[in-house]
Amino acid sequence: MNTLRATGIFILSILIFTGCSDMVSTQNDTQDVDTELTLKSKKNPKSSSSNTSFYNMGSGAKTGDFVIVNGKIAYNYEYVLWAGKDSEAGTVLVSYSNDGFLVTYQTNSSAQLGEVHVYVWENEGDTPNRRPAPGKAPYKAENLNTDSYTLEVSYDNINCGETFYISTHAALVGPGSNAGETAYAGGDGFGHMKGGSWWGFFEHEVDCFDPN
Known about the structure:
Layout: H1 2-43, E1 52-56, E2 61-69, E3 72-83, E4 87-97, E5 100-107, E6 112-121, E7 139-141, E8 148-154, E9 163-173, E10 182-186, E11 197-205, E12 208-209
Parallel strand pairs: 1-11
Antiparallel strand pairs: 2-3, 3-4, 3-10, 3-12, 4-5, 5-8, 6-7, 6-9, 9-10, 9-11
C-alpha cells in the first residue's frame, strides 16, 4: 500500500513539474513575441493602416543670404516645391523676422498658387501619421492666384541650432503643366520618391550665430 502511494506521489510530482515547465516556456515565448513587436514598433514608429504616404522630405540649401534677428545673423534656406510628388513647381524660402519665421512660396512657369497652408512642429515625433487637413493649418492663405506669397509663422525665442519640422502645402492653379496638382516643399532628392496619397514635411535647422 505504501509503495503504491509513493508511486502515485512520484507520478503527480512529474506531472506538476512538466506543467510548470510548459507554463514557463509559454511565458518566455510570449515575452519573445512582445519584445519583437516592441522592436518593430521602435523601428517603424509611423506605421499605420492608412494608405497615406508621408515623408520626411529632407533638408534645404543655404542661399547665402541672411537677416539680422534680435542681434543674431540668421541664414535663409530654400527648399524645392514638388508638385504631384516628382515635378518641380518652384521653391519655398524660410527666412526670419523678429516675430518668427517667414515662409515664402515662389512658383515657376508651371503653375500659380491657389492656396497655401503651413504646419510647424518642434519634434519629429509630433508629426501625424496621416496627412493633416490643409484647411485646418494654423497658417494659411486662400483664393490667391499669384506666383508668390509669404506667410509669417509667429514664434517666440527661436534659438540657434534648434530644429523645426515644417509642412508647406500648396494647391496649384493654372495656367501651366502643374495646374490642379498638390505640392509640398522638401529637399532636392524628393523627386525620386513615390507613393499613393501623399504629403510631406522637411527639417529646418535654425542656422544662426551671435556676431558679438
